[in-house]
Write a structure and sequence with these properties.
By secondary structure, the protein is of the alpha+beta class.
């Protein structure tokens, strides 16, 4: 077999291996309609979503209270939030909530007790059914650390502060021995204009003004093979942001072991064949 034939064979083997490797998709918008009545101050260009440019009904409706988009990168298992609400400050004494994750399509929003009006109350996660929570430690003090906690039925959740916003519950996880921390990290925080969210991130939230605070979380420790629903609100429930990840999406772009093995075998085979051909040529010339 001459050198040209080996080159063609090598190209075919490498092309076959490379064709099975994933193509990086980057962040994909996973925002869905939160299903709650809303007050709109702007327009969301994403059909049927109505999230950017709106808040919960009868709440303060402007950019500084608006939770606008969620996106997910299946290659890095990172969740991104785009928010008009600044997670590092309090707005009228209200802060950002935690992100609750349902991986079994089983979560519910429990009814607010009839004897509880405005104000916070706590309840067991058995009434809600979340599997995980991303607990933001205290971003208002500049602490950008977070814990990802696996929840049990006994985990303690805190409601939003206003009865009219009960549909956005829960707002926070109250850490306890009923939770198990599976990972910790620091979330990245950057700011972008509406135009930069589109140009840099590929997410079209419209042109509703204000500053967009973009923060990301590493969810590599969370099993998302069956898909997931993510929910985030402020502690008052002024807006609810919901993202949904389809089953298999978080693992679809991760190459299986067999793919990598095939790639290495192909390259190894080519190297051996070229080496043998080189030795054969030297013997003939000698």
């Amino acid at each position: 077999m001459n050198t040209r034939t080996y080159q063609i064979l090598a190209a075919a083997l490498i092309a076959g291996a490379v064709s099975n490797l994933p193509v990086r998709a980057g962040y994909v918008d996973i925002t869905v309609n939160d299903g709650l009545p809303s007050s709109n101050y702007g327009t969301d260009p994403r059909p049927g979503i109505n999230e950017s440019g709106q808040v919960a009904a009868n709440c303060v409706a402007d950019a500084s209270w608006d939770l606008r988009a969620m996106a997910f990168d299946v290659n890095t298992n990172k969740l991104m939030v785009v928010s008009g609400f600044n997670p590092q400050t309090t707005n009228e004494g209200i802060g950002i909530g935690d992100i609750f994750i349902d991986t079994n399509k089983s979560y519910t929003v429990p009814s607010r007790p009839s004897n509880v009006g405005d104000g916070y109350f706590t309840y067991a996660n058995s009434a809600a059914g979340y599997e995980y929570a991303i607990h933001l430690i205290d971003p208002t003090t500049g602490n950008l650390s977070y814990n990802i906690a696996a929840l049990s039925g006994a985990s303690v959740l805190q409601s939003t502060g206003y009865a009219q916003n009960a549909g956005s519950d829960p707002a926070k996880l109250i850490p306890s021995g009923a939770d198990k921390i599976v990972s910790s990290g620091f979330f990245n925080l950057t700011t972008k204009t509406d135009a930069q969210v589109l140009s840099d991130l590929g997410i079209n939230i419209g042109t509703n003004g204000g500053t967009n605070y973009v923060f990301t979380f590493d969810l590599s420790s969370v099993s998302l093979a069956n898909g997931a629903t993510f929910r985030l609100t402020e502690t008052c429930g002024n807006d609810l942001l919901v993202g949904q990840l389809a089953a298999g999406a978080a693992t679809a772009a991760v190459p299986e072991t067999s793919t990598w093995v095939m790639g290495f075998l192909a390259l190894g085979t080519v190297a051996v064949m070229v080496r043998r051909n080189s030795r054969s040529s030297e013997s003939v010339e000698g």
